[in-house]
Design a protein that fits this description.
CATH topology: Arc Repressor Mutant, subunit A
Radius of gyration: 18 Å
Helix content: 40-55%
Mean pLDDT: 82
Low-confidence stretches: 1-15
Distance between the termini: 29 Å
Largest sheet: 2 strands, antiparallel
Number of domains: 1
CATH architecture: Orthogonal Bundle
Length: about 170
């Protein structure tokens, strides 16, 4: 992969203008939606995946695949039994959108050469002298700053302010 190749193929999509656009995969988007749903119900006990899927318009089967890494990362916990389901393992104010995206998507970076500073040359032999690399690093830093500055509590507050009882968070 070259220095200006997109970091993860899941982040690449063709835009209406014929070029490529930086995008999150459904893993990241659906993961944030599911975590938002858990945050909106924080303190009310476990929420079944079916309820999350129904409220957010997502596939229950796909959500099952997403909660495993979120649970392993300590962001959610599961409760078994008839009244079981999933719930946040932390306060919504302590979980950022960036935390969720990194668990489900990996490093936030538009190119391989800025995904891991220590392995940049491994991904691109020209990384050390590449003038475009500083651009990709700034893009990475800007995206990281935004997604790390938004917590689940912020999303919940935004939903509550909108006054919509049938909230659905779109990314």
């Amino acid at each position: 992969m070259g220095c200006v190749t997109m970091y993860a193929e899941t982040l690449v999509a063709h835009s209406e203008f014929g070029g490529e656009a930086l995008r999150l995969s459904t893993r990241g988007r659906y993961g944030v939606k599911a975590m938002f749903e858990l945050a909106m119900n924080h303190g009310r006990g476990p929420i079944p995946l079916k309820e999350i899927a129904d409220r957010q318009g997502l596939s229950e089967h796909y959500l099952e695949q997403l909660v495993a890494p979120l649970r392993k990362a300590g962001l959610v916990k599961s409760v078994r039994g008839a009244h079981g389901g999933y719930m946040l393992n932390k306060d919504p104010a302590s979980i950022s959108v960036g935390d969720i995206i990194r668990v489900l998507e990996g490093p936030i970076a538009p190119t391989d050469c800025v995904a891991d500073e220590h392995d940049a040359v491994e991904h691109c032999g020209r990384a050390a002298g590449c003038m475009a690399r500083s651009v990709w690093a700034k893009v990475r830093d800007s995206i990281t700053e935004v997604v790390d500055s938004i917590t689940l509590a912020d999303l919940c507050e935004e939903a509550r302010k909108s006054g919509d009882k049938n909230y659905m968070y779109y990314i």
